[in-house]
Amino acid sequence: MMMYPYLKLGPRDGVLLISVFIMLVLTLIFKWSVWEFLLSVVAVIIAFLAGSMKSNKKNVLTFLKK
Fold first, then answer.
1. Closest CA to 17 of 50, 41, 38
2. How far apart are alpha carbons 30 and 6 in whole angstroms?
3. Whole-number pLDDT of residue 62
4. Gap between the Cα atoms of 18 and 25, Å rounded
C-alpha cells in the first residue's frame, strides 16, 4: 500500500535519494562545507540525468565515410 500515491516515485528515484543521503553522511563525517555538499549533490544529479538520456541512433563518424 502506497502512502503517497501522488508522488509516483520509482526505483531510480530511490537510488537518487540514497545517493544524496550518502552525500549528507559524508558531509557530516568529513565536515565538508555547505558548498562542497551542494556541489557534490549537483554533480550526482547531473550524472543521474546524463545516465538516463537516450543515446543518439546516428552514426557519429558518418562524415569520415564520405
1. 41
2. 36
3. 60
4. 10
Instruction: Dump pLDDT digits (tens) for 35-64.
Output: 999 999 899 889 888 877 666 666 666 655
Picking from 37, 14, 42, 43, the residue whose alpha carbon sits closest to that of residue 24 is: 37
Place of cell 564520405: 66
Q: Would you mind telling me the total number of residues written for the chain in this entry?
A: 66
How many Cα atoms occupy the beta-carbon half-sphere of 30 within 13 Å? 11
Given a contact cutoff of 8 angstroms between Cβ atoms, the answer to whether 22 and 37 are in contact is no
| Strand ranges for 1-66 from DSSP E | none
Of 33, 41, 36, 53, nearest to 16 by C-alpha is 41
Quick check: 20 and 34 in contact, CB under 8 A? no
